[in-house]
Amino acid sequence: EEIKKAGEEAKRESEKLKLMEEENKKLTQLKEKISLLREKESALQEKISSLKKDSLYWKEKASTDLKEPEGKTRSMEEIRKELKLYNEKLEEMQGKLLEAEKKISVLESRKKESGVLLENIESLNVCPKCKQKVDGEHKKLIEAEEKEKIRAYEEKKGKLNEIRLRAQNNIKVLKEKIELLRKEKEKHDLIEAEKKHYEEKKSLREEAKKKMGEIKERIEKDEKEMKESEKEMKSLEEEKEKILVDEKVYAEIKKSIEMIKEKEKSKEIERARMLEEIKGVKERLEETRKEITLKEKARKEKEHLEVTEHWVSSHFTSVVSTIERHVMGAVHAEFTEYFSDWFSKLMEDETISATLDDTFTPIITQNGHDTYIENLSGGEKTSVALSYRLALNKVVNDFVSTIKTKDIIILDEPTDGFSSDQLDKVRDVLIEAGMKQTIIVSHDAKMESFMEHIIRLAKHEHESKII
Question: What is the tens place of the pLDDT at every residue in 372-424?
Fold first, then answer.
């Protein structure tokens, strides 16, 4: 009802305002026309001023002196063709130089290897190739063979040095020729640029003469248009003086209408707020109903879980524990058998034996008394570690059939501290482990005697390389 009453009051005031707005509209239109004419007049004055400046600019361009550039060069196609040929030759020479330097580097490396072998020949007791004892005659034979290799390396190196020197000289000559061609290309570009600049200036002077004529015509046209605009503006000013509007009454009526509309708007907002509150209450009611449903469902799930938990804790856990003890008992027996057997084979001292406790921890017995692993020597500790690792690997592979790496084992320095006799026993233990492939990282030369493949590495300037 309050909104309806405010609307009727606003309608009555609007009718009064409408009559005044018609007169005011005419006045506003006249003011706008006068304002547009004044803007047009100002714009024409600026335009004429700008055209006069442009006229001076083009007049200066039209009086520019022209001088055609001189100088001739070969065609760019010939220069580029010759430059490409020399670049290809340069690339070819650089490839030959690089290849020669690589070959020299390889010869130096081979020569160095032969030199090292000659230096160590006197102290050599076992042949690195056939692993047999070396007598004096065999040493002389190896020494003569390595000296012949060094002589051949020096001869090849001398030929390669000649090739490298020729390549270096050819590269120097080609670079000088390429530099001359580049300078010729730069000169050609400079002359072409000067010719282009000359043509541009020539074209600009012709354009300037044309522009001057066009500007003169536009200035005359704009001056005529400005006079007509001044005449029209004077006529509109006279018409404006004839229209009278009471600005104070108009403003009061307009303000009254705005206040009524503001009141109407306020009531509309209050109504919308009340409707929004009703909507919110309905939504909260629906959410509460959903929450009650969810809590009922959760209560039923809780009761089911309590029953399941009781069954698991009272029956299932004890069954799993019993199964686990039987399975781990079988694993423990096999693990202990492999560990004890391989430890005894690797150890030289028969007074030391090893087994495992219930937690799979090694127990060391020496002279009938238990001892700590810390009290063992380096080789004995290594025997414990290697036996345990191989036994663990064997048991896991036997009990878990899905392991994808069961046919391979990698050992890093597995014989640290071993004696020569223990190294011989390592081979027997590895065979018993039954792996298809065993990779060993070791510094012990004796390991090479029972390996099928040997990869030698050396470190040079903190970088390991296969030799």
Answer: 989 888 888 999 999 999 999 989 888 888 888 888 999 999 988 888 888 88
CB-neighbour burial class of residue 71 (10 A; exposed 0-12, middle 13-18, buried 19+): exposed
**H or E stretch at 15:** helix 2-62
The residue among 432, 424, 433, 425 whose CA lies nearest residue 345 is: 425
Could you tell me how many residues make up the chain?
467
End-to-end Cα distance, the chain:
103
**Tens of pLDDT, residues 219-261:** 777 777 778 777 777 777 776 666 655 566 667 777 777 888 7
Structure tokens at 243: 């229209």
> Which amino acid belongs to residue 370?
D
Helix pair 420-433, 317-346: axis angle to 10 deg: 140
Q: How many angstroms separate the CA atoms of 335 and 358, rounded?
A: 11
d(CA 388, CA 406): 16
Residue among 436, 443, 384 nearest 412 (CA): 443
How far, in Å, CA of 319 to CA of 313, rounded? 10
For residues 188 and 76, is the Cβ–Cβ distance under 8 A?
yes
